[in-house]
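haha ok so turns out i had the wrong file open the whole time. this is the CORRECT one, sorry everyone. sequence first:
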Amino acid sequence: VLERIDYDQHNRIAFRKEHGLWQGQEGASPVHAFFPGRYFKNPVRLHTVQDGQAALLPFSLDMFDIPDDSPAQELTQTTGFAGFRVQDGKTEQDWMAFLGASYWRTSGYSGQFGLSVRGLAIDTAIPDGPEEFPNFTHFWLEPGENGDITAYALLDSPSATGAYRIASFRDNGVIQNVAARIFLRKDVERLGVAPLTSMFWFGTDAPHIAPDWRPEVHDSDGLEIVTGSGEQIWRPLNNPPRTMTNTFSAPSVKGFGLMQRERDFDQYQDDGVFYEKRASLWVEPGQDWGEGSVTLVELRTDDEIHDNIVAFWQPGAPATAGTEYDLQYRLSWVQDSPLPATTGHFIATRIGAGG
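then structure:
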């Protein structure tokens, strides 16, 4: 049944807002569930937390408006949803969504969704094996003041398991304090902490890549790193002819992120998706992460519908079975890096034949 609920069928299914968590409650952010489908087959259990007590939100077809001819009407053997989205209590606009594997997104500082983050990356772009995508299988959702919300999540995969606490609030963007306790079940060749996922099709450095009328198409245009010694690194993003992986040594890293620095509408000329409003996403460790590096993976793409950019922190020590990680970090979905600027910023890149 789920295989028949493709992208178009999934978009025809709507959550009935009268079933939303904390719907109409003063100062709260209502939560709506996503229906399962072809691309979201793993059941996700949702729980509420009130006064220290957890209660399961049971799955029911009655919580959704489903067309009569939809294969979703036949779904009787699931106990979970696909994920959830969080709305502003006054505008009813979405400002955060958890959907698919361990991915989540926010609307950032401008109300415009763009790049994503996920719980953990396992063996991204290694030469001799497929990537493994851990899933968030359970959520416990706790409302806070002023529309704040805390999500407790259980992560599960063949190679790892973990528990996450993601406390989210809005302040000139979306700010999230993450605490993660991760346990490895197997050896992992390339472990990615706080992995960011974005899209870069083309920019002014390579307009020949696409026969497109727009000057630039990307959610992010560069990787920014501040090392433990205070060195600032800026690496423009690229749509390479083949998969490229670059590693930047960053012991005791102070922060890194995928940034969107080009803010001029004329450089995108797209009034449908507004790439100039896409948030930058900055990762700031809450403690000394020790030896490690920031890894950037760039995949070849020929369309803006594919996320082809990944960046994450990679521990310096081998990620072997039995290893435990206790990590804290802050995610800032903002216009630019929240760290104070101490030098000039690269704002554009050009590449061409010299002479």
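The chain has a mean pLDDT of 95.
again sry for the mixup
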